[in-house]
Every structure is written in C-alpha cells, then in structure tokens.
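Attaching the record inline, Q. Sequence:
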Amino acid sequence: MLIRILLLFLVIALATPVLAQSRNVPASREQVQLSFAPLVKQVSPAVVNIYTKRTVSQRVKHPFLDDPFFGQMFGNERFGGRMRRQLESALGSGVIIEPEGLVVTNAHVIKGADEITVVLADGREFDAVLALTDEPSDLALLRVVNPGGEKLPYASLKPSESLEVGDLVLAIGNPFGVGQTVTSGIVSALARSSLNISDFNFFIQTDAAVNPGNSGGPLVSLDGGVVGINTAIYSRGGGSLGISFAIPSEMVASVVAAEKMGQSGQDGVVRPWMGVSAQKVNADIAASLGLEKPGGALIARLHPASPLKKAGLAVGDVVLTLNGKEIRDPSEMKFRMATVPLGEKAAIEAYKNGRKGQYMVTAIAPPDEPPRAETRLEGAHPLNGASIANLNPAVAVELGLRTSEEKGVVVLKVPRGSYATRVVDPGDIVLEINGKAIKNIGDAEKALRKKPAAGWSLVIRSQGRIRKLLVR
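Structure, as predicted:
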C-alpha cells in the first residue's frame, strides 16, 4: 500500500512541470498590455447613435367603456372614442462610411420616422435625412445634414469573404440606450441561410453580445474594417444568448453603389433578376446526378425571359459557383447575384449533362413585359373597385411575390370600402373566373361582363395557396 502511495506522488510530481509548461508567461511589456483598445479608438468615432421620432395615431377610449354596465350595453364600437396623435421615440445604431456623412443602418431602425437625429461618440448631434431604404435587405442609408463643412470620422467597408469561422470580431452599438458599448466574440458561422429575417437570408453569425439598440451598428474585424451590419439576434426573452446575425458587407456595398448610380426606387434597390426557382441539392439528389458531394442550387423552373436561360442553362442544371464563390443553396445564389451591378456579367459554373461548364449571365432588372396595363375594375361583380395588372417580373418583384407564374392577372390595390375587399387582397393572383382561365386583363374584363345565374366562381392564388370562392 505504501509503495502505491509513493508511486502516485511520483506521477503527480512528474506531471506538474508538463502542465506548467503549457501556460506561457508574457515575454514583454507589449504582450502584457495586449488589448482591443487601439482598434476601438480607431473605429468607435465613426459609430453613431440614431434617435428617431414618429407621429402615431391612437384611439382614446371613452371612460364608460371600462364600466361593466355601459360597456355591456353599448359595446366598444358605439363609444369608440377619438383619435389622439402622439410622438413615439426609438433608438438604434449606425456607422459612418464616408467623411461627407453617409451613414449605414438597418431599415427597421428608421421605419416610419418623421425625424432622425445622429449622435456621434464625441457628443455632437446632427439631423439626418433618409437617402435610401431597402427593406428586402433591411438596410438604410442616411445623410448627415449640415456637418459644418468638416470631414466626419468614418470607417471603411471590408469584404466579409476575408473572415473565417473562429476569427475574432467586435460589435459596437448602443444597446438599450445605455450609450456606446463594445462587445467581442468570434465568427460562429458564415453564409447562414436557414433563417427568415429578410428577403436575403444570408448572414454572418457571431457570439458577440448584441442586444436591442445594437441594430444597425457595425461588426468589425481586427484590422478595423466593417465586415457586416448587426441586424438580429436569436433570443427567447429579448436579451443576448450569444447568437447574433450581421448582414455581410458585400450587400452593404451593393446598396451604396445602387444609391449612387440611381438604381433605386420607392421599393428600394433595383436588383438583378434571375427568373429562376431553385432547390437545394441534398445527398440523394447529388448521387442521382453524379455529383461528388451535396451542394449547389438545382434549377427547378426558368422564366422564358430569364438571363440564365439566355446564357444556356436549363431546368435540371445545378449552379455550383458564381463569380468564383461556392454556391451551397438557392439562398446563397440569390445573395451572390444580388451583389452584381446591373449591366455587368456574372461567371457561373454549372453542372449540366454530367459535366461542368462556364456560363456568362448578364445582370438585368426585372423586365416590365408584358405591359402591366393597370386597370381599375368597375361594375356589378365581386372585383368591383380593385385595380389589377398583367403579371410580369417587375410587378412580381414590386409586390414581393415569390412566384414563377409566366402569365396571369394580379391584384394591385383594393380601396377601403370597395366590394372587392370582401374577396381579394393586394398581391392575390386571379387564376379563373367562372371556369375561364385568366391569362391577361382582357380575359378578366370579358369574364366579368356577364353575371352567371349560379353566382360568381373564382379561383385565386393568395399567399401561395389556392382559394376557390363562390360569390352570390
């Protein structure tokens, strides 16, 4: 027994130096003082707090409505009260990317704002005006008003492609309105697309602490470059759980370029249109096609005017890369193409007929063909008052429709109080009226001229679902 105890002490004594050697003592004063402070001093002056004000209308209930007796007698509608306008405030973050005062933030930070104030880290305040809002990407651009002729501090965009999983990053913003705050973390994942945050589900995931108020602030690499804009968190109670998402800087750069080139409108940036429906390539599909591994975007449908079709691609082909960047799924293909300037060509590598090939695809705006021919419907029928148009790619993009329908009629507007509000909503696609297929406005007007004895029979695609209605 004594021998065993002695051997145990001997093993511990021999192991102790090995454990000590795995910890390195700082070899210089500089190593002792390693810190993010120089990086923060470089970037934080360009990070701004954004305060917005907007006027909202709220119904003020009559005090009798809270009384059980009067409330039961008259109901909520009889004593509905009056409308009262009040001022709401909100806050967020942003980053100046040009010395003239161009600020990048999230679209949801400034949505509905009547007044926007930008506050710099040194306490200076400036009014700002909205230069561009692009809800599909959740990005917005602001311009500082009257900066006094001086150059403002700014940070430069850096390609997020330079990041690798595990890299250290900083998040700077104004969480909960406490003031400018810096948090650090690592890149947890790249090209995260299994979300439903914006139209372009393609994000940088980090574990840096990001909270409400951080939205619109920069995600910064260790060389001071802005690699992303913090936009969302995964949270069950509103606080940080170490899972946050940032919009890649490539998307930010494309929005800035579109604003400067005038490639934007009321609905945001005019982006390249692909005219394609695609699906992810899983292991079974990859094996059936003879691909080495799962990945890419399998073309399921192509619009006749699709630039991919004009380049030589067809249904069943698999897009593998775009401008040298690997395509892992349809979301990534959509994101990569969205960053290509209109009029330029994108190099696509695709798997077609058992072999890989190169295809040059031109970035085009969604075509407004066939002509939309917007028409307001009137008459004794269930669509009275609705405005309809011929469905084309431009109309589909404007309405946010995810459809590859080649022909049809879409509802654009439904005025309040019109009979059509009982039947359709904006964005609905009218497929049939009284058993007649509706391919254009002429078909719709013709079908609505004569009321059938049994009532109106309608087939409508609404939010991706087919509805069959009988209106008497």
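The two ends are 98 Å apart (CA to CA). Residues 1-22 have pLDDT under 50 and may be disordered.

More tomorrow.
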